[in-house]
Amino acid sequence: MPRERKKLALGKGAAFVKGRLQRLPQEDESWEADFRALPKPLSENQTHYLGLVVVQGDGSVLAEEQVGHAPHVNDLATLLAHAMRRPLTGSGHRPKRVRVRKNPRWPELFPHLQEIAVEVVVDSDLATLRTAFHDHLRQVREARRAGMVKPTVAQAAIEKLFPAVAQWVRGGHIEVGDQEGFGFVARALDYGGLAFEDDRPNTLAEALAALERGLRAWYEEQGIEVDEPS
C-alpha cells in the first residue's frame, strides 16, 4: 500500500510562518537546501537523512536537521525556516534565492517561498552542499575514531602483506569466517555485490592469501593498479 504523502502545514505550530519570515532582512545570497541519506550500519533497517542549508559558494552551514524517515515537504519548510530565523552562523535573514534538487515533494512549498520574495531554482547539482555533506561524514568518522585501538607495528604491516585487500576495504568490505551451510568462506563485496569468493581456506591466513590473489586478478581485469605500500 503506497505511503500517504504529507501535506504542507503552515501557520500555528509550524516553523514556517510567512509573516515572521517576511519581516526578516533580505540579503543577496543563494542558498542550497537538500536532504541526503546517511550511511546505514548493517545492523539497522531504518535510513536516516541529514538536511542541510548552505550558502552557495561560501559553504557556510546555516541549518542542519536529521530525520528518521523519507523527508517530506514539512521537513524542507522547517529546515529553511530555521536557516532564516536562527542560522548556525550570522544573524537571521532571507536569501534572494534557494536552490533545491528536483523532488516531487517540494513544489508545494515553492509558492510560499515566492510570497516572501525568495526565488526557487531547481538545480541538478548542488556542489556546495555536496561538499558540506561529505565534510559532515568525515567529521563523524573522525569522532568515532577517537577511541579506536591503535594497531602495533607488526599488526600495521598487514597492509604491506596484503595490499590488494587493503585497497579493497577502502571502498568495499570483506567477510571471513564460518558461514552456516557454507563452511569457512572468504568473500569480497562492494556496492555492486559479490566480486570474489573462495570456500577452500580453513584459516585466517589462508583466507587473506586467497583474497589477495583473487582481488589482484579482479583489479587486473578492471585495468586498475594495486597501490603497493612503500
Outline the structure in words:
With 230 residues, the protein is an alpha/beta fold. It has two domains: 18-145, 2-Layer Sandwich (Nucleotidyltransferase, domain 5), CATH 3.30.420.10; 153-222. Helix content is 33%, strand content 22%. It is built from eight helices and eight strands, in the order H-E-E-E-H-E-H-E-H-H-H-H-E-E-E-H. The chain has helices spanning 18-22, 73-85, 110-115, 127-144, 153-156, 158-161, 163-168, 204-222, and strands at 30-37, 49-55, 61-67, 97-100, 119-122, 173-179, 183-190, 193-198. It has a five-stranded mixed β-sheet, sandwiched between helices. Strands 6-7-8 form a three-stranded antiparallel β-sheet, covered by helices on one side. Strand 7 and strand 8 form a beta hairpin.
Low-confidence stretches: none
Number of helices: 8
How many beta-strand segments?
A: 8
Q: Which word captures the global form?
A: elongated
Mean pLDDT: 90
Report the structural category.
alpha/beta
| Portion in strands | 15-25%
Please report the first level of CATH classification, the CATH class of the largest domain: Alpha Beta
Helix content: 25-40%
**CATH arch. level architecture of the largest domain:** 2-Layer Sandwich
**Rg, Cα atoms, Å:** 24 Å
Give the end-to-end Cα distance, rounded to a whole number of Å. 56 Å
CATH superfamily of the largest domain: Ribonuclease H-like superfamily/Ribonuclease H
Which strand order do you get reading across the main beta sheet? Answer: 3-2-1-4-5
CATH fold node name of the largest domain: Nucleotidyltransferase, domain 5
What is the string of helix and strand elements? HEEEHEHEHHHHEEEH
How many domains in all? 2
